[in-house]
Amino acid sequence: MLQKSKLFLQALKYSIPHLGKCMQKEHLSHCNFADHYYNRVKLKKYHLTKCLQNKPRISELARNIPSRNFSCKNFLSSKQEHEKPLSENMDAFEKVRAKLETQPQEEYEIINAEIKHGGFVYYQEGCCLVRSKDEEADNDNYEVLFNLEELKLEQPFIDCIRVAPDEKYVAAKIRTEDSEASTCIVVKLGDQPAMEASFPNVSSFEWVKDEEEEDVLFYTFQRNLRCHDVYRATFGDNKRNERFYTEKDRSFFVFLYLTKDSRFLTMNIMSKTTSEVWLIDGLSPWDPPVLIQKRIHGVLYYVEHRDDELYILTNVGEPTEFKLMRTAADTPAIMNWDLFFTMKRNTKVVDLDMFKDHCVLFLKHSNLLYVNVIGLVDDSVRSLKDGKLVPMTIFHKTDSEDLQKKPLLVQVYGAYGMDLKMNFRPERRVLVDDGWILAYCHVRGGGELGLQWHADGRLTKKLNGLADLEACIKTLHDQGFSQPSLTALTAFSAGGVLVGALCNSSPELLRAVTLEAPFLDVLNTMMDTTLPLTLEELEEWGNPSSDEKHKNYIKRYCPYQNIKPQHYPSIHITAYENDERVPLKGIVNYTEKLKEAIAEHAKDTGEGYQAPNIILDIQPGGNHVIEDSHKKVCCQAPLRW
């Protein structure tokens, strides 16, 4: 039954895409679910030859089944009352036994450990540890690495296999059917594979590689069915074997797990109700381990890793069911855990598997098995600068096909701790109806994720917002939303800083830009104390007049300061004659300098170069916060879009 359960879960894991579609269409019962996936499971047969020579025949096993003892009185009474039914049962048993005896021994099979690493598959064939090339795994063309008969064990089988990162060594845990005791062997790979070492009573084990490219094997030692000690060993010329950790609380045990990306080796110290996890750096295994969270009675947690973030499956908090939480790898303590995904009530978590862009949860609810595939990049973007997650909101028609060929309009703000406005605008509705994709990038400097989100995008962290914006646009393209030649970027007021900066640093991401009352000359504006808002704005942009650090930092991103001869997207700028917040002079100066740079680039490029359109539309009257009237929208829409 245990083997069937393992195969069933294995079928689930390798059938996720198909299962997702199937589960959306109908709820499968146990029977039709199993039948549906039976043909998708590929079983590998391990014919038992030498290993089973001394194994009792099936008929002998049947004859020696332990029986319950009765007194003569009870037996006779029972025999008299149930003589006929008992005789019928014995006849049925004899038929089963006879059928078993007539079946060839080769038809019985054991499903053993198998692992893929590099271009090879490692597994047990007969009484040997072998490997074969991945594409030849189903053939009989394999290389024998170790003969299990050398261990002098009765009916041995391989329970677990782990391959060293560079495939210099392979370790295998070997057990027998009638004992939980196991032996871990380490085989040195090469032209003539040979056993390098063996360790008795090993439970869990994993490989890592240190800074000097040396393979290090961590393993737990089992005594009286309990694992309290962790060892680490190296081989070859620098052979050593030392105790790494001992758990002193007898109610806890230790097991090792290597994260899916091999970045960390986790040392899991657990009781039935409580756990504590330590991280061993997969790149520096000789450094002291790092504690994620000290054990708290009643709190269980398990850890995976992806892109410098820890994904923690835990029962902490309410409701009591397991939930998936997330935190940065360098701040692993429980106070930094953020809720990422919650299970419905009365749901059991069977397993968790981490992939590049998805996390897969294998769940059981109402006695039915199912999977949840959680996208890790669909609803958020990781900044190119420091890996910070950046939320985006995307709109498009549900029936749109081939989104990569649709035009894309991206909007950004990212300043003063203010949320990016996503209120209804008639021209946006028209764009969506015409097949456009609208994307709102909630970058750092805005207020979407609280005060810290604003603090991380102001003063000398303003470049974070630029990195976030670049990451958003690249991710949109990578996820199949439009392409650079069909992408436009728009912003209002202070959002013009990030847009102008992106035009200077990564103009190839854009086809066109529209700016309304944009702030484009940060340095000169903030050094002019005669302007009404300069002093008020110091906390957002810094004081370049008195602080050289602020001045140099602003120079790094200021749109006006960083204009250079290169190809730019076409840019449409709307300015207002009476705007007191963003002086018209700064916008005019920016436009003239930009046109000069484009002309210089065109001159250097030669004939045939198609220069972008740079349009400055100065509206008479008006002010910085003029509302979008229907008349205004109708007049300006043809110019912008």
From TrEMBL:
Which GO cellular component terms are attached? cytoskeleton; cytosol; Golgi apparatus
Q: Which GO terms describe its molecular function?
A: serine-type endopeptidase activity
Q: What is the top-level taxon of the source organism?
A: Eukaryota
- What EC number(s) does its UniProt record assign? 3.4.21.-
Which residue ranges does the record assign to the Peptidase S9A N-terminal domain?
A: 106-381
**Domain Peptidase S9 prolyl oligopeptidase catalytic spans what residues?**
424-630
Query: What residue ranges are annotated as transmembrane?
Result: none
The subcellular localization recorded is: Cytoplasm, Cytosol
* Gene3D superfamilies in the cross-refs: alpha/beta hydrolase, Prolyl oligopeptidase, N-terminal domain
Sorted alphabetically, the keyword list is: Cytoplasm, Hydrolase, Protease, Serine protease
Q: Name one Pfam family in it.
A: Peptidase_S9_N
- Principal subcellular localization: cytoplasm
Quaternary structure, per UniProt, is: Homodimer. Interacts with the AP-1 complex.
What's this protein's name?
Prolyl endopeptidase
What species was this sequence derived from? Answer: Moschus moschiferus
Q: Which gene encodes it?
A: PREPL
